[in-house]
């Protein structure tokens, strides 16, 4: 072996990629419109210096094409691309990715690649991001919020409630004066944008003593969304027109009293 050949072998061995250890969490979870930081940590090689590139790639949940969404060159500039342009940036001194104004469409697989290209020390790690969305609205069909609704006590009554555009799909729970009641059946519709609509139909036999009680339909997206929900409510009237007449009489009497006090 000549001295030149020996030198070439030495150089080849010295610059073989070592396999940089890069770590992240397996799963990150966030809520639409909020911000999140995806971890990407590593131990820099002693002789790596500032000659490295951090690249984040993204594969959407609803698609197969992987795209590069951010590139940062050493301690210099960084550029974000595509749907993450202006929303993604490196946070901290390593490769953590900060994403603002989260969207459901950000759900997917993210890969952080760190390449110390001079010393050929490179590694990557992958994480899954799930972006959740609180239902847009909950509505009891046919009524405005707080409506006074007559039902015939002792006879089954059907009520229908809808929650729109939630991720994950919402369960709808019925309450009568804050006491959960059973009898609802649910159907789900995939909106094909990562969100779901839920429709719950309640068949319930009200009692005479349920007069003036509040019937509420409330969304639940636990355990993914723990503390946020939407609801709609109406007020049950089992007394019929007589209750409305009495209420109007009381109202008119109050107006008359005010009139006398004024004059």
Short précis:
This protein has helices at 3-14, 241-262; strands spanning 22-23, 27-31, 36-38, 41-42, 53-60, 67-73, 78-80, 88-90, 97-99, 108-116, 121-132, 137-140, 148-150, 156-166, 171-176, 179-181, 184-190, 196-205, 214-220, 231-237. With 263 residues, the chain is mostly beta strands.
Q: What does this entry look like structurally?
A:
- This protein has two domains: 17-132, Immunoglobulin-like (Sandwich); 137-240, Sandwich (Immunoglobulin-like), CATH 2.60.40.10.
- The chain contains two helices and 20 strands.
- The chain has helices at residues 3-14, 241-262; strands spanning 22-23, 27-31, 36-38, 41-42, 53-60, 67-73, 78-80, 88-90, 97-99, 108-116, 121-132, 137-140, 148-150, 156-166, 171-176, 179-181, 184-190, 196-205, 214-220, 231-237.
- The radius of gyration is 31 Å and the shape is rod-shaped.
Secondary structure elements and their pairing?
Blueprint: H1 3-14, E1 22-23, E2 27-31, E3 36-38, E4 41-42, E5 53-60, E6 67-73, E7 78-80, E8 88-90, E9 97-99, E10 108-116, E11 121-132, E12 137-140, E13 148-150, E14 156-166, E15 171-176, E16 179-181, E17 184-190, E18 196-205, E19 214-220, E20 231-237, H2 241-262
Parallel strand pairs: 2-11, 13-20
Antiparallel strand pairs: 1-4, 3-9, 5-6, 5-10, 6-7, 8-9, 10-11, 12-14, 14-18, 15-16, 15-19, 17-18, 19-20
């Amino acid at each position: 072996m000549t001295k030149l050949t020996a030198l070439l072998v030495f150089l080849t061995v010295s610059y073989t990629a070592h396999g940089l250890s890069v770590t992240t969490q397996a799963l990150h979870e966030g809520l639409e419109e909020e911000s999140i930081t995806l971890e990407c940590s590593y131990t820099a090689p002693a002789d790596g210096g500032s000659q490295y590139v951090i690249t984040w790639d993204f594969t959407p949940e609803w698609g197969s094409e992987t795209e590069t969404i951010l590139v940062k060159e050493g301690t210099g500039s960084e550029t974000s691309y595509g749907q993450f342009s202006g929303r993604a940036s490196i946070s901290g001194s390593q490769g953590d990715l900060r994403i603002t104004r989260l969207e459901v469409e950000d759900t997917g697989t993210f890969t952080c690649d760190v390449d110390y290209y001079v010393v050929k020390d490179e590694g990557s790690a992958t994480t899954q991001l799930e972006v959740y969305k609180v239902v847009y609205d909950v509505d009891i069909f046919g009524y405005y919020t707080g409506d006074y609704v007559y039902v015939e006590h002792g006879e089954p009554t059907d009520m229908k409630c809808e929650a729109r555009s939630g991720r994950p799909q919402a369960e709808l729970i019925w309450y009568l004066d804050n006491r959960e009641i059973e009898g609802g059946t649910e159907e789900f519709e995939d909106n094909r944008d990562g969100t779901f609509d839920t429709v719950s139909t309640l068949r319930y036999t009200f009692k005479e003593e349920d007069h003036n009680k509040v019937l509420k339909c409330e969304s639940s997206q636990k355990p993914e969304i723990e503390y946020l929900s939407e609801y709609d409510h109406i007020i049950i009237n089992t007394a019929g027109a007589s209750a409305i007449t009495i209420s109007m009489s009381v109202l008119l009497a109050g107006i008359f009293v005010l009139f006398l006090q004024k004059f």
